[in-house]
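User: I'll paste a sequence; please echo it back and then give the predicted structure.

Assistant: Echoing your sequence first, then the prediction.
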Amino acid sequence: MFFDVLAPSSALQLTRFTDVDSFRPAESLEDARSIPLDVANFAAARAIVNLPACRIIVARSFARILETTYRAPGGMVILPMTDHLRASSSGMDIDSRFFIALRGSHHCHFVEPQTNHHALIMFSPTLKDRGWFDRADALWVRIADAAAHLYVRQLVQDILRTASIEPHMFETREVAAHLQEGLLLALDELFQIDPLSERRAPSAGARSAKLVQQIDDYVTAYPASPIYTADLAGEFGVSVRTLSGAVTKVRGMSLHQYIRLKRLWATRTQLLRSSGASVAACARAQGFHHLGEFAAAYRATFHEAPSDTLARARQAGVSAN
């Protein structure tokens, strides 16, 4: 991807993340929470350019489960930047043909089974309404016209390259506004699409997403308790099949795998923040009572032993002092 030919400048903020721990602080500032699905091959990057009335963020993501709250009073477009994007939102498959347009505040769930490249173009509320959004709380997933989509993608890439090698162009508001106007005109074309191509998440998908949120809340509320599928289904007033189907639809894995993954990440977070607790204490606090199975699952997920994570956290604490 074009990240390799970019260099940071006064007009381009460029950050590369080599591990999930370095990525976490940046994510927390954006009210987002990721569960990586392939820690061994983690690599993420982000490039940011500011124009007079919009901000362009191009990101290289990673295989993950993502929960995020977008706050875009002026509107936002999320656009695939390659032909190979694969993701799902509330069980709805999204590929490189689609773009997302939203305005207002929206809590979104995504599963990305692979590395993806995408652009977030965020508009200032001061930008004159161009007729893209008819409501303040709108969200659409639409099939883009292929030519219009490609043109916007190329413009975004050109703006980033220009910001990298000719940052002085962004120091003059007139020039920056000219670059922005070209992008806005291209987005006008992108929004001129057949309304029938709009894809909204079906009500069944919304119900599945709500069930998964209930599971998340339950796991958070009872971190050390054993969780049985039948009891959980009874708690939420649905069948086991409905509950399991919701997790598979929204998260792309079984209920058992999902709960175990959440608890493994919670244990890792506790180990990294530990100021004296043992591995066994951290594991039991997250519902792992068979320590041999826990250690095997932890190593398979994070490619290191839990004791190594704890030792690294303690060493970092000593170094900080």
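The longest strand covers residues 64-80. The chain has a mean pLDDT of 88.
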